[in-house]
Amino acid sequence: MLATLSFKLFMREIRSGYLTSMLLSLVLAVTIVSGISLFTDRLEKVLSSETQEFLGGDLKFESNDTSIKDVLETLNLKDSKSSEMAILASVIFSEEEMQLSSIKAVDNAYPLIGELELENSSGTYKTTESPTPGNIWMDERLKNLLSLEYGDKIYLGDATFVFEATIIYEPDRGSTNFAFAPKTIMNIGDIDKTNLIQPGSRVEYNYLFTGPDEEISQIRNILEENRNQGDDIESLDEDDSSLGKTIDRSENFFLLGGLIAVLLSACTIGISSQRFARRHISYVAILKTLGMNLFQIRGLYLLLFLYTTLLTLVLGLTFGWLLQSNFISLMDSYFPTELPAPSLYPLYVTCVTVLICQFGFIYPHISKLLDISPMRVLKNDISFNQNILPIFFMGLMAFLLLLYIYTNQITLSLIIFSGVIIFSFIGIGCIYLLLGKSKLGLGAQDPISLALSELRRRRLSNSFQIFAFTVAIGLSLITFSASKNLLGSWQDSIPENSPNNFAINITKEDKESMKIFLAGNDIEVDLFYPVANAQIVRTKDKDDIIDRNFNITWVEDLPGQNEIVDGDWFQEGVENGISISDEIAERYNLNMNDEIILQMEDGSIETYIQSIRAVNWESFSPNFFVIGHPSLFKEKSSTHITSFFIPEAKQKVAAELMREFRTVSVFSVEELIKQVRDIVNQVTKALNSILLLTCLSALFLAFSALQDGFDQRRHQAAILRTLGATGRFIRTSSLIEFSILGLVSGLLGSAIAQTGVYFIEARVFETIPGFYPEIWFMGPIIGILIVSGLCLYLVNGLMKQSPKELLKLQT
Amino acid sequence: MILTTKNLRKEVPSGESNLVILDDITFNLEEGKSLAITGPSGSGKSTLLGLLAGLDTATSGEIVLDGIDLHLLNEEERAILRKDKVGFVFQSFELLPSLTALENVMLPSELKSEDNPRKKGEYFLERVGLSDRQKHYPNQLSGGEQQRVAIARAFACSAKILFADEPTGNLDPKNGKLISDLLFEVNSETDNALVIVTHDQDLASQCDKKIELKLGKIID
Questions:
Q1: What is the pLDDT of residues A115-149, one digit of tens each?
Q2: Which member of B83, B106, B117 has the closest CB to residue A724?
Q3: CB A635, CB A604: distance < 8 Å
Q4: Nearest CA to CA, how far is B204 from chain A (Å)?
Q5: B143: which chain A residues are within 8 Å (Cβ-Cβ)?
Q6: What is the spatial distance between Cα A652 and Cα A658, in angstroms, rounded to a whole number?
């Protein structure tokens, strides 16, 4: 009986439209939560497999020697696989040409992950095997530079090889640090024949591992225990590539957008529930009068909300699935394979969100509704118990719980939570102070007096509305600023006309003629950075040679995309010192003012560490681990590196350049830039969808808050009109009143947004927080426009009904 | 004549057809006189009162109130007419719950931007015997007291014609008698016309004129 009655009640509520705003908010919250969590879940899975492929395994150990091999042999691993590779740079010869190449010598277990795509005279093919001894593979650039045909002889060190295939795609793209040079892959078994590796040769050994998580973590621990200075361990969660960071930050933004949308929806649900409960006072009183006990009435309403939950989940999950499919389709050109199916986690998050909304924002109102006395049937003026503290408490606790679930950080949750509470109290305090006590009468002489009188008279309900508007405006502005900040940082990293070509190995002699050549072709060129190879020796401990060569440059001005994090850039009058990147400072334990010797081919330089820099490796400009003061290197020989932008219409200039300057290596990063731009464009679309949905949630909240207030104003408007107030009079007065509310909410929303953005930039995106003046303009303007616009819509609705109809609605 | 109606008809949509609520209502009322509109529930009494007071519009027919063709006015013009010439008393009082008794009575004077609405409000509250209840809110007053505040507000309108919809309908006989006596007593002090919708035959018999409705038509 109870189930039937509650279902009838549910259907009646749906048909009457009274449940609409609550349902819409719940559906919107579920759509956003499920859409975002499904998308990020699948994205994480695919990124993990992409990173795995990029890295070449689950774990990579990088060293300058093979000493770790002894340790690895003692490992007793059941289900893991490992692969060894040696990476070095060497000049490679064909019958007619020679060229510097990055050589990757791989063992027979290569590739551990993914497959290689190669091309030979029969066409392209894929393989999961390494090159057989005697054969080598090269990338297309090297093939062209050496003018090779398949089957031609190649000379590398003391050994001769056969050119077997061109590398189209290799899975472990992140394996080499010699990214500038064209690539060759050979079998590690052939390396001894070449005699390339001699004592003091610069060789990097990579050990790749793949296997179950437990074994990988066991290997990692052993490697950590046995690593030497300069050895590096990389795993899947350390993807530092441009794309990795882009996607990582956008994922954070999606989760932030989801959280904000849920918080906004939760507030709307709270307001809608309050309206629902108010409308059901008589209903509950009648049911009690007719003999229904509390247990039955509670059951009736719980069932009603069970139906609401089920409908919400069905609709929300469907829309959520469509939303994530839309996001996936935006990005599918980036992901070569079909995305993996999502886990059950998104469903769990969605259900928990709905449950918290139900118990935190709906149930307290229903519980209060159940307290209504059956005397209400006889005395119409009996209403709720006026103590709203328990409802507030439950709502706030649910708010905090949602924050915690989504951020997973108790401190951040408490900061946001206290921020919203403090700003709301400030807002309420401002309203009380600004408006002062009510004066006698309604102030209906003119629209301005009526508006001010209404603001004074409804201070408490206005404060709640301001709270709702402030939350709506503040959180939307946070989402807006966060998305703008993300887009800005991406655009900064790849500005229009950013260099798409690099030229290296430029000799002093070629430098000037190359400048003339490029200028003659209307191509602007960046600085020509001198480059030399150096080894760093710490002098405080004579044996402490850092066993790695660094490319070093020397310039007077700090290059763009570099930021000094410790010390100062070279000052005038001081002609000494080097600046190192924070990565090598950390990796090799180098500190400010450490005295060092730079060992170079043509002599040593004694100097010290003058500053430490943060380098934006995401930028497409030449970046250096070590930069020295130019006066130290006056007598040193060097080649030069530069970068420049060649427009699409002038692509043949690159080929001419290579023909003209045959010792200069020119390579294009156009494809990489295009790939990053594409993904940024696609992520931007997804980002805007989230922004749109968040704004929609904010609009729902603002509308619900206003609608709730208008229920109480409907009666007053009817009486005022009956007594002769014109529609224009009421409209003007309401517009003034709500514009003031919008202005105050907008200012408070801006304050919340500025504070929120500060913490998000510092804690979530890990960027330097900025001040955003546009937030302070947008908040009040949006507040006035949205709040007064919605108010006008609602007032016009009231004006369409005759005063008689309005009065009838009240009785 | 303060009020004249001619062939007044009111239809409302009901499913696919229209339901006729009032049909061919024609009568007139002289200045300063009182009129009772009676009839069983659903006969269209309140609807007629709403049309006469300019709270609603007729489907066809004419209403002339104090020389003004009410049926030709739009809602904004009717609002101004109500402010200047009409007062109301409702069965369910229709006081604003957020205003005190005095503030409710001051409201018509405020809307007319009259000088010193407080003085006028206090005068009429005193006239209905509620001087000591000025600062009370409607929920702190009994039904009879609320209706007295509503009467004070209606007279504070300084209207030419006062419309009362079942003014004693929500009250017990004793309070009902008190209210009807008060209504006629205060009205006699002005030259207002009074139109009352009522089931109460005693109240109707106190009026100068009476029309009875049945199924939306005047019966003789």
A1: 888 998 888 898 888 899 999 999 887 888 788 88
A2: B83
A3: no
A4: 23
A5: none
A6: 10
